[in-house]
Design goal:
Strand order of the largest sheet: 1-2-10-7-12-5-4-3
Shape: globular
Radius of gyration: 20 Å
Largest sheet: 8 strands, mixed
Bound molecules: N-oxalylglycine, nickel (II) ion
Order of helices and strands: HHEHEHHEEHHEEEEEEHEEEEH
Strand content: 15-25%
Structural class: alpha+beta
Number of strands: 14
Number of helices: 9
Distance between the termini: 37 Å
Helix content: 25-40%
Length: 357
């Protein structure tokens, strides 16, 4: 970029508006402000079109043959891509649609009302709405606003949630929780473990639902919706709308995750890669900015509990290790791991590197 400027002051000014990127777009800007500029323009065309696996979950609870098939597909997908899409996952289309509408309703409510939820305090607040959780640590600001709700282990009282998405958030997260547990079972089996192994390790202790709003961008090649990163938790279940823009790095190529109506995207996070000693991979992914929008997505992160007095030790699962396959990561706790992840902010260096032996 060359020209130096007081980035910190501009970040503070942006933060203090409390209306995020949406506020800028509502004000009619036609150029992307410099805090959002990426060092080199983004190539918005997809590279070679590879196709992310889509796994059909129909019948996995009734038919052992279907279950084994799905389990093998999960094993292959998480061992190579770290990502897959699922269909016939059991969450009704109207629940998915209502969740997107609820998110839109939150962001499109009167900005004075929306502002009241704006905060960077993750300790006290159950709902945390802001733009760029890593605003002050990331090198580049993203073209995205978000709000985060911690839905488990202690589901919030309805009145603690924003009215436009209150009921649907409770409904959606209870369904996503159930689905996540089924996927953890398939994953445990894929690792040759008892079906409840990952659940017992605490992989579904905490559910954090993060709803993203990517406003339309006047110069999409100059910025990013979300910087390339890996997710911190065990698994993420993502709902995206039909606009597209999510890309995953596979064999050194950025591959578009094409929206499929009614499908959900599942991916492994860093903590899953750590406990599986690299058997399942936490892949880099990013979202490009878009001329059209807003794009809505809802990311549900399965994490370990950070609140307990005696945090569970996380380390490569003993049953997966051998003389030829020694532990690649040191033991840690969810709290230590996530504190490090949040402090670092999103960038291309995975938090995992820090925990390598
Ligand atoms: C995330 C993420 C992708 C999307 O929230 O970690 O990668 O499509 N989101 O919003
Ligand atoms: Ni992500």
């Amino acid at each position: 970029m060359g020209i130096s400027y007081d980035r910190k002051a501009e970040l503070i000014a942006f933060d203090e508006t409390k209306t995020g990127v949406k506020g800028l777009v509502d004000a009619g800007i036609t150029e992307v402000p410099r805090i959002f500029l990426v060092p080199s323009p983004e190539n918005l065309n997809s590279d070679q079109e590879l196709s992310l696996p889509t796994i059909d979950l129909k019948g996995i609870h009734e038919d052992p043959i279907r279950r084994k098939q799905a389990m093998e597909e999960v094993k292959d997908a998480l061992g190579s891509w770290g990502f897959f899409q699922i269909v016939n996952h059991g969450i009704p289309v109207d629940v998915l649609e209502d969740m997107k509408k609820g998110v839109l309703g939150f962001f499109e409510q009167d900005s004075e009302v929306r502002k009241q939820w704006y905060t960077r305090d993750r300790s006290a607040n159950r709902v945390v709405y802001n733009s760029n959780f890593d605003l002050y640590s990331a090198p580049v600001t993203n073209w995205r606003d978000s709000f985060v709700c911690r839905m488990y282990p202690n589901p919030p009282q309805p009145e603690e949630l924003p009215p436009p998405c209150r009921d649907i958030l409770l409904e959606y997260s209870s369904q996503v929780m159930k689905l996540g547990c089924s996927i953890l079972e398939l994953m445990s089996e894929a690792l040759g473990l008892e079906p409840n192994h990952l659940w017992n390790m605490g992989c579904a202790t905490q559910l954090q639902v993060t709803s993203h709003y990517y406003p339309p961008c006047p110069q999409p090649e100059l910025t990013m919706g979300i910087t390339e990163h890996t997710d911190a938790g065990f698994i993420t279940i993502l709902q995206q709308d039909q606009i597209g823009g999510l890309k995953v790095l596979y064999k050194d190529q950025w591959t578009h995750v094409h929206p499929i109506q009614g499908a959900l995207v599942v991916n492994a996070g860093d903590l899953l890669q750590l406990i599986t000693n690299d058997k399942f991979v936490s892949a880099q992914h990013k979202v490009v900015a878009n001329k059209v929008g807003p794009r809505i997505s809802v990311a549900s992160f399965f994490l370990t509990d950070l609140m307990t007095q005696n945090p569970k030790v996380l380390e490569p699962i003993k049953e997966l290790l051998s003389e030829d396959n020694p532990a690649k990561y040191r033991s840690t706790t969810g709290k230590e791991f996530l504190d490090y992840f949040y402090k670092k902010g999103l960038d291309a260096t995975p938090a995992l590197t820090y925990f390598k032996i």
